[in-house]
Write a structure and sequence with these properties.
The chain has helices at 23-28, 99-102; strands spanning 3-8, 14-20, 40-44, 49-51, 59-64, 70-77, 83-85, 91-96, 111-114. By secondary structure, it is mainly beta. The radius of gyration is 13 Å and the shape is globular. The mean pLDDT is 93.
Length: 117
């Protein structure tokens, strides 16, 4: 799985992002996996809704448009019980619950891909 570093425009916030871009990676998501480390997320693209079946831990879901702007943040989706959607989203970042607040993420912020040197 490919990994990129995302940065919030105008902030020092960076996030290590694993990209789920093919059918099987998107289908599996974080099901049956261990919690992600701090400042790490899984980007599921394209995707505008998620479920929490077969999940072992709670997550925050951060929905993005095609330009990487945050449209919606759903915090602390519970394993097995949670559902979430944002019909205008192009993709969703899944991260361990509490990370959206720990990183200071807000609706309207924009992520950019940080170029590696």
């Amino acid at each position: 799985m490919q990994t990129k570093t995302f940065q919030v425009e105008g902030a020092d916030t960076t996030l290590t992002v694993h990209l789920a871009t093919n059918f099987w990676q998107r289908f599996r998501g974080l099901m049956l996996r261990r919690p992600l480390p701090p400042a790490t997320a899984l980007l599921i693209a394209p995707c505008n809704s998620i479920h929490m079946c077969f999940m072992r831990f709670a997550i925050d879901a951060v929905y993005l448009d095609k330009q990487g702007r945050i449209l919606k943040i759903t915090r602390h989706l519970r394993p097995w019980l949670g559902l979430s959607a944002c019909w205008h989203a192009h993709s969703v970042l899944e991260m361990t619950a509490g990370q959206a607040d720990a990183l200071g993420l807000r609706v309207g912020q924009k992520f950019t891909i940080q170029e590696t040197k």
